[in-house]
């Protein structure tokens, strides 16, 4: 068989076509790769930004959780050493991953507020956020029982009834207990006391909380011109308007008494008879309820611990607590209660 | 000198060659066409996703800072709340006043297949090709407030705790959806 020899002009277009195809394909792949790469970079940047923003929000929330209940925010401006005019003024202790500082907010001094500046970093992103921190305008209690120390294991040998529901169905349910302890520990305490403690279904689970500011509260109560134990009327007497009552030492209630407003006992509150109170009962030295005795509170019970610190709560008799926002509001009407610090605005700086 | 059989052989070769060439070219055109379509689709998808995401980011940014009031002047964070329009206020410079012509007053408007961010009196289109755009307002329990056509009144706006934006954008090709709920930081 005879084959023709290829001439110089007869190589065909296959190579050229293949090269063109390769070039076009390469251009397309390059374009596609570039588009995808750009989108991936953008997505990564966005994820970093969102993570950093979430870190800033978390940092603010965690810092707020460390601010004790109080009446103003001046202590925040003093820094960790609590003294003014020192280099640490305005600095704050923040969780890992963020730094922050506190400054006085512009404008009038009232209502109390500070500017919290947070610099947070996460996943390669970084965000600067300014936050306005104020005291909650609404008086509230973190729980029905708010203690300086967690209750001891044998605190309740009598009965304790907790009702976290308010008469207003729109109100949030309140925890039965708030204390500076891990919620799991408080749950455990509650479970161990189960035979002695009855909770309604609308009583929320115990929460961790910083101790109530009892020392400052007592000081402020003294300055507010309070009445004394005589404001606790015999049960059955016509109800009197809410008032602030301050008892300098221990208070022993050996008969049947009632009252409303704010009762501050700088020592221990020793119930040997019966006391019905509507409002806030503050016992700096803790509460003891003798066998057969009864303490009923519609509002809140804030407890310190006796010195030396032992159990803030000893219930051999009966303790009944139920939420009453109306009672708290009435108590606030006679004495300014401490408030939690809350966020009231943010500005993303960069 | 060429013989007859040789001439026929060349013709067949040319026909086969032409067929093969056409086949290769057709395949090449199809591949290039598919690649181009893919590239354009990817670019369009990326663009529409970018557009929607940028709109959501701007919305998030503005709702987060609504009601920023360092001087405690009593600023109202939401001054207008309608299903298709939202106006936010913030005292960003801390002078106690919300300037109506600056970034301290920011509005979002869904109109004419477009989502716009209005700063003061300047309107900035955030997204075109908007197929759906709606605003909802949630109260403290997380439930949507019923919004009359004229928008929420002062009492209704004071109950707003979060703002919900639904956005569907299609510029070329597949539409993309975004639903985002942003809580106001200036309310309890």
Can you walk me through this structure?
The complex is a heterodimer of chains A (350) and B (188). Chain A folds into 2 domains: 14-135, no CATH class; 145-334, no CATH class. Chain A has 5 helices and 19 strands. Chain A has helices spanning 14-65, 74-77, 183-192, 214-223, 325-334; strands spanning 98-104, 113-122, 125-135, 145-147, 159-163, 177-179, 197-199, 207-208, 233-234, 243-247, 251-253, 256-265, 269-271, 274-283, 287-289, 294-303, 313-315, 318-322, 341-348. In chain A, the strands form 3 sheets. In chain A, strands 4, 5, 6, 7, 8, 9, 10, 12, 14, 16 and 18 form an 11-stranded mixed β-sheet that branches. In chain A, strand 1 and strand 2 form a beta hairpin. Helices cover 36% and strands 29% of the residues of chain B. Chain B contains 2 helices and 8 strands. Chain B has helices at 4-65, 154-158; strands spanning 78-82, 85-89, 105-111, 114-119, 122-128, 130-138, 162-169, 176-183. Chain B is elongated. The mean pLDDT of chain B is 89. Chains A and B meet through helix 1, strand 3 and strand 19 of A and helix 1 of B.
């Amino acid at each position: 068989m005879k084959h023709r020899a290829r001439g110089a002009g007869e190589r065909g277009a296959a190579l050229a076509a293949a090269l063109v195809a390769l070039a076009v394909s390469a251009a397309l792949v390059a374009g596609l790769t570039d588009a995808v790469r750009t989108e991936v970079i953008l997505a990564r940047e966005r994820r970093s930004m969102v993570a950093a923003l979430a870190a800033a929000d978390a940092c603010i929330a965690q810092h707020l959780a460390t601010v004790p209940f109080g009446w103003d925010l001046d202590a925040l401006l003093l820094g960790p050493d609590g003294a003014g005019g020192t280099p640490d003024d305005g600095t704050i202790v923040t969780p890992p991953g963020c730094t922050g500082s506190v400054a006085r907010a512009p404008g009038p001094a009232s209502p109390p507020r500070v500017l919290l500046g947070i610099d947070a970093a996460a996943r390669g992103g970084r965000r600067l956020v300014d936050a306005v921190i104020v005291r909650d305008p609404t008086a509230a209690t973190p729980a029905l029982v708010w203690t300086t120390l967690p209750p001891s294991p044998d605190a309740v040998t009598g009965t304790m009834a907790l009702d976290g529901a308010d008469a207003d169905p729109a109100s949030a349910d309140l925890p039965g207990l708030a204390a500076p302890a891990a919620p799991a520990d408080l749950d455990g305490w509650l479970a161990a006391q189960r035979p002695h403690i009855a909770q309604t279904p609308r009583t929320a689970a115990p929460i961790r909380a910083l101790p109530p500011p009892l020392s400052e509260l007592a000081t402020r109560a003294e300055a507010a011109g309070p009445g004394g134990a005589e404001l606790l009327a015999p049960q059955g007497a016509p109800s009197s308007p809410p008032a602030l009552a301050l008892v300098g030492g221990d208070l022993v209630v050996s008969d049947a008494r009632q009252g409303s407003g704010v009762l501050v006992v700088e020592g221990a509150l020793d119930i040997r008879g019966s006391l019905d109170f509507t409002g806030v009962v503050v016992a700096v030295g803790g509460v003891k309820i003798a066998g057969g005795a009864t303490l009923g509170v519609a509002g809140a019970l804030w407890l310190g611990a006796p010195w030396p610190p032992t159990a803030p709560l000893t219930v051999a008799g009966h303790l009944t607590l139920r939420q009453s926002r109306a009672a708290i509001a009435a108590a606030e009407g006679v004495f300014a209660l401490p408030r939690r610090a809350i966020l009231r605005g943010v500005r993303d700086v960069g | 000198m060429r013989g007859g059989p040789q001439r026929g052989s060349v013709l067949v070769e040319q026909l086969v060659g032409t067929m093969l060439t056409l086949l290769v070219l057709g395949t090449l055109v199809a591949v290039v066409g598919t690649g181009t379509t893919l590239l354009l689709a990817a670019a369009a998808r990326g663009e529409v996703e970018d557009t929607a995401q940028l709109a959501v980011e701007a919305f998030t940014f503005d709702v987060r800072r609504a009601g920023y009031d360092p001087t405690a002047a009593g600023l109202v964070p939401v001054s207008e709340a309608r299903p298709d329009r939202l106006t936010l206020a913030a005292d960003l410079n801390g002078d106690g006043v919300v300037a109506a012509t600056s970034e301290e007053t920011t509005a979002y408007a869904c109109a004419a297949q477009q989502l716009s961010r209005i700063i003061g009196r300047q309107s900035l289109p955030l997204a075109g090709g908007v197929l759906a755009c709606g605003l909802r307002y949630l109260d403290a329990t997380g439930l949507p407030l019923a919004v009359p056509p004229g928008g929420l009144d002062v009492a209704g706006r004071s109950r707003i705790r979060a703002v919900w934006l639904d956005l569907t954008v299609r510029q070329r090709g597949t539409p993309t959806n975004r639903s985002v709920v942003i809580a106001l930081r200036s309310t309890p």
